[in-house]
Design brief:
Elements: E1 3-5, H1 6-20, E2 24-28, H2 44-48, E3 53-55, H3 60-71, E4 76-80, H4 91-98, H5 101-104, E5 114-118, H6 134-138, E6 144-147, H7 151-163, E7 168-172, E8 180-182, E9 196-199, E10 204-208, H8 212-224, E11 230-234, E12 237-239, H9 243-253, E13 256-259, H10 268-280, E14 289-291, H11 302-308, H12 312-322
Parallel strand pairs: 2-3, 2-4, 4-5, 5-7, 6-7, 10-11, 10-13, 13-14
Antiparallel strand pairs: 1-8, 6-12, 9-11
Length: 327
């Protein structure tokens, strides 16, 4: 199988869907003439022209509103935000319009739109550019939330998101656009709402998503050197949440650790913990534990960035605590 970068996998997903369906178009800041801020849309203007690859002003609320209106009138927009940190300006359109369109119209028309772009921290970018938003958007009925960790999943899930009849929030990571992975040349789709077991194990279940999957898999690799086999699950979709796959894993391992980039309060791990203790409490041999970002703003200094985010060493220690190997 060929190996391609993350950004190319996203580009291929959009190109294939735009060739397949003339209603699909891409709109956002610098997506056309500049080939995308992260070169995800490189070459797309040349192929599809300015009517289907549209540069916008720096006005997230404005172009999100245009996208919502277009989706409600029969097209399938892909709206790129340069970062989800800026998309808070467009939250009114996502929350009050795209997410509510189908229910408020009595099912007469929907809003098939994808909002996509990089989410979470990307190094020393300061507090206003380093926030993870999965749990925010997952709290909104009427939208789906996808958060991908590798090129294969990114392509398959973005194609499914573009074809979905509902608004989809699609979370990427700025620091992963250059990551490479195996992606088939033939067409494939990955269903929204299904988690994936990335590593089999029997001793503890580790759940994560987006770039924190690197931490989860790195921790599992370190633990295996000490004879601890962790099962690692990539959520891939935050809403709808595939808690059943987690539950089946916990029935086998009897322990659960969650790694995420959210702030701890009302996070994705909070919902997972509730679901698992409710459904499979009798299978747990230890309390569910989690490692999240620090409950504070992320500062610029590199030592504070390192302290703010989950890492392999602290995840390994947490797993050992769950297994009662250390206190």
């Amino acid at each position: 199988m060929r190996t391609i970068p993350f950004r190319q996998a996203l580009r291929e997903a959009m190109e294939e869907e735009m060739r397949r369906d003339p209603r699909v178009f891409l709109m956002g800041e610098e997506v056309a003439q500049y080939n995308g801020a992260y070169k995800v849309s490189q070459g797309m203007l040349d192929e599809f022209g300015p009517n289907r690859v549209l540069d916008t002003p720096i006005a997230e609320l404005g172009f999100a509103a245009i996208g919502v209106g277009a989706a409600s009138n029969g097209t399938r927009p892909v709206i790129e935000f340069m970062t989800w940190n800026f998309a808070v300006l467009a939250l009114d359109q996502i929350l009050n319009h795209a997410a509510k369109m189908r229910s408020m119209s009595g099912g007469q028309f929907g809003c098939p739109i994808v909002f996509r772009g990089p989410n979470g921290s990307a190094g020393q970018l300061g507090a206003q550019h380093s926030q993870a938003f999965e749990s925010w958007y997952a709290n909104i009925p009427g939208i789906k939330v996808v958060s991908v960790s590798n090129p294969y999943d990114a392509k398959g899930l973005l194609k499914s998101a573009i074809r979905d009849e509902n608004p989809v929030v699609f979370m990427e990571s700025e620091v992963m656009y250059g990551d490479v992975g195996e992606v088939p040349e033939e067409e494939y789709l990955i269903p929204i709402g299904k988690a994936d077991v990335k590593r089999q194990g029997t001793d503890v279940t580790i759940v994560s998503f987006n770039k924190m999957m690197k931490v989860a898999l790195g921790a599992a690799e370190e633990l295996s050197k000490e004879g601890i086999e962790a099962e690692v699950i990539d959520l891939r979709t935050i809403r709808p949440l595939d808690w059943q796959t987690i539950a089946e894993s916990v029935k086998k391992t009897n322990r659960l650790v969650i790694v995420e980039e959210q702030w701890p309060f009302s996070s994705v791990s909070s919902e997972i913990s509730y679901r698992i203790q409710k459904e499979v409490f009798d299978y747990l041999d230890a309390p569910i534990r989690r490692i999240t970002s620090a409950d504070t703003n992320m500062h610029y200094a590199p030592n504070l960035v390192a302290l703010h985010l989950p890492d392999v060493a602290r995840t390994v220690k947490l797993v050992k605590e769950v297994m009662y190997m250390v206190k």
